[in-house]
Amino acid sequence: MSRDHVHPDQRSAAAAGAPLSSVETPFLELLARGASADAYEQPALLARAEGRATEQIVALEQAKLLALRVRSELEGRRRREAELSALFETAHDLAGLRDLDAVLQAIVQRARSLLGTDVAYLSLNDPARGDTYMRVTEGSVAARFQQLRLGMGEGLGGLVAQTARPYVTDDYFKDDRFQHTLTIDAGVRDEGLVAILGVPLMLGHHVIGVLFAADRRARVFEREQIALLGSFAALAAAAIDTANLLTETRSALADLERANEIIRDRSGVIERASDVHDRLAQLVLHGGGVHDVAAAVSQVLDGAVEFTEVTATPAEALEASRAEGHAVRHADDWIAAVVAGGELLGALVLRGQPGLDPVDQRTLERAATVTSLLLLARRSAAEAEQRVRGELLDDLLDARDRDPRLLRERAARLNADLDATHVVLAARLDAAAADADQEAAARRRLWSAASHLAATRHGLAAARDGGTVLLLPLASGDTATAVARRAARHLGTAVHEAVSVGASAPVEDLAARPDTVAAAYEESRRCLDALRLLGRSGDGAAAEDFGFLGLLLAGDRDIAGFVDRTIGQLVAYDERRGTDLLHTLDAYFACGMSPARTKDELHVHVNTVAQRLERVGRLLGADWQSPARVLEIQLALRLHRLSAPTQR
């Protein structure tokens, strides 16, 4: 019995009606002893011959298909192991390169063995003659074939050498894709080749030759075989490149004089690098800025160097510079990322010098490092000043230090004047953060923007109650409302989110009466809450903007100010002209805003009532009878009567 036949025990197990789970057993035995593919048909054929149940035959067929898949996978793995082993051995030979011809011979031998071809050979390009010639052959028997030279584009090999692409044919003489010549066809016919596969030998983007595998019969080369030959071609190219490098090294040793000349040429560049090092050190010691560094490097490199923000720098080049830690070329410019702790702070850009010397490139990179240190120092100083400003404002809000002299001295060191008129602002972000970390980051951005605003306006800022509080001086002719709205716009632009700002009424004598700051802060918070309730997100307002509601929001309940803002022009007109507009307006409202009933109440002609109401409209504005204005005017009239009961 041959090894591919089914074992008698298998027949007995099948005849006995073994359970369905045992149908795999004969196939496992076939897999174990490496049987041929034909042997896997035997268990199902035997089951049919014995008349076994259809379900068992189906199960055997399914098990057969699975076993054949396993067999194919095992064969594929064994083949890949052999290929990897051959590649490893070839790479090992390359690592110990002593004889280029021996290494190339080993490559074609292993390629022929693994691909199972009759012949394998390798050709190299001859740049001087513009063709490619046979360098190494394995399995060749024809002398004319071994001495072939192929012009670029001629035959299969010439086409591979010309196009840098692999080509394969299962029958060379019937394939009209190639330029057939008498010389090439004669050599191929002498060798008896039919199926040919050729892959390029590449060094970078240049073809230096072609590696071939060929059969003396028609066959189809699989994709895996083409890839394997490509791997051997890469090793052959590396071997050739290594040999060339050894030759170049020997040549370089003979050119020491030229190397000395190059060193002398570079001495000027090194002196420039030393010069910029000294200049940068002096800049740091004397408190120079970022633009001073750029100016110094511009002089040394004899070009225009500038510091650019992250948003104004080409993103791809900037990211490449950060990732590589070196300056990178972008068009005709060089870009060196300014980085601190992984954070991009900007870049130093050298304009219009594409051919930058490596030493000068390093100079630009060192300047970028110095720039990052200066930016970090400036940021640290700014943060320290922000903390000091916040501490002073916290003391004013909490009334911790009531000594006016000490308060003035602390403010003066921060370029703030507590004797000037100020406005207290309460600012908060309107959008809700997705989580606690994002909310904390958003608050830090708001505090940083508020601190910067306070520093530039000679004021103070501090983080408080989930937002920020600012104390800003009020310029002559300015209003609390205008300050609040400008602050809302400025802060919203800085943090890229909507920021609402409530403002207090102007406050004075902060050093002598620090408790007024706390009261003004509470008033600004009430205005801020009112803005949110009214849906005015991202806006700024003071108590005076809310009409009679401002009486409830204001800390000092400025009744006289409300009356003056609302009906002050009527009061002044009556006092100057001796008219009775206030009394007429009182009667008009009491009579349900009916001119006919009003004239009866006042005992005057209806035209007189109309004339007086027209005068009121000119003094108070065309919208004085709108519901909102009517409510405020009636409240102001009542408050005016209460404050001056003897007047009509």
Word description of this protein:
The protein has five domains: 25-96, no CATH class; 101-240, Beta-Lactamase (2-Layer Sandwich); 287-377, Beta-Lactamase, CATH 3.30.450.40; 399-553, Reverse transcriptase/Diguanylate cyclase domain (Alpha-Beta Plaits, 2-Layer Sandwich); 559-643, no CATH class. The chain has a six-stranded antiparallel beta sheet. Mean pLDDT is 78; it is low at 1-21 and 551-556. It is elongated. It is of the alpha+beta class. Helix 3 packs antiparallel against helix 4 (54-95), helix 15 (436-456) packs across helix 16 and helix 20 (581-590) packs across helix 21 (595-602). It contains 23 helices and 15 strands.
Question: Characteristics of this structure?
Answer:
Beta-Lactamase; disordered N terminus; 15% strand; six-stranded antiparallel beta sheet; 648 residues; 15 strands; single chain; elongated
- The spatial strand order of the largest sheet comes to 3-2-1-6-5-4
Average pLDDT = 78
Largest sheet: 6 strands, antiparallel
Q: Give the helix proportion (percent range).
A: 55-70%
Q: What is the CATH superfamily label of the largest domain? A: Reverse transcriptase/Diguanylate cyclase domain
Radius of gyration equals: 47 Å
Count up the domains: 5
Q: What is the CATH architecture assignment of the largest domain?
A: 2-Layer Sandwich
The first-to-last residue Cα distance is 135 Å
Percent of residues in beta strands: 5-15%
| Bulk shape | elongated
Backbone structural class: alpha+beta
Number of strands: 15
* Top CATH class of the largest domain: Alpha Beta
Low-pLDDT runs of 5+ residues are 1-21, 551-556
Q: How is the CATH topology of the largest domain named?
A: Alpha-Beta Plaits
Number of helices: 23
Family: Belongs to the CdaR family.
Pfam families: GAF (PF01590), GGDEF_2 (PF17853), HTH_30 (PF13556)
Protein name: Helix-turn-helix domain-containing protein
Domain GAF: 99-250
